[in-house]
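Example 3.2
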Amino acid sequence: MTPYSLLDLSPVPEGTSTADALKNSVDLAQHAEGWGYNRFWLAEHHNMPGIASAATAVVIGHIGAHTSTIRIGAGGIMLPNHAPLQVAEAFGTLRELYGDRIDLGLGRAPGTDMPTARALRRNLTPGHANGETFPQDVQEVMAYLGDMPEDAAVRAFPGTGTHVPVWMLGSSTYGAELAAILGLPYAFASHFAPAALDQAVKIYRDLFQPSDYLDKPYFMLATNVFAAESAEEAVYLRSSMMQTFANLRMGRPGKLPYPVEDISTVVPRQFIPSLDAIFAVSATGTKPMVKDKITALIDRYQPDEIIFAANIHDHQKRLRSFEIAAEVMKEI
């Protein structure tokens, strides 16, 4: 059976609060643990009213306190927003708190708009702020988490010697190549940017160099899952996330919208083709329909692991969707 995991952005639906979203994330993680999910990752985004996971390490710690066996971590930390030492200290602290359950996924994107990115990075050097030093920054984080010599001028406390597993994240071929060169596990963001998926997977596997961290490629495929008792309901549930992407394109981010029967009534028609492209690597429908889609993805990409995502307005419906996904994975 292919291991399956869950990516949560701690969505804040319209009509609810950030506190509600964080409570829902805890509830989801606890259910995911019982359903056999391998990991529960949270993602860093900023200046978005509909996402409550901006302080990602803090939320990971909260999830850790309310779970016991599921791996927890970041999918991911947007490294150009942070000093590598601070990232190592945060995840070294999580490692000391929760043992060998912590993962650290690193990404190069800002996770926000450019004015917010500048606000986040105001005290960073120019090369670090614009991502030019990303490969060096990744290696610096890994060094801080490794066995640094005692006479090193700077060490991470907590952090040094914890060996928190580092993942490379990406939505383009850049991350695939870097993951391959550094010999790291690689997760591709095909749940929202699937265009370069085929090329990125090939590059990663073709160029992979064994390392002290990994002896062969380990590829994680990300896909949205909108599963329900009927195909119509699944499409209805998906409409909230589709509206979110359309609103971002139009420069008006907000809370996760209520679902609608017909997406074309709330989203300008010119955005519909781009939304279809965004959700190309998604599983939507009844359990058999979702099973067929996921089986096809596994057959085509042969992932070492799948990570599911989905922002669904109704928390109970979201739970059921991920429960169906888990049932499907156990049957494949």
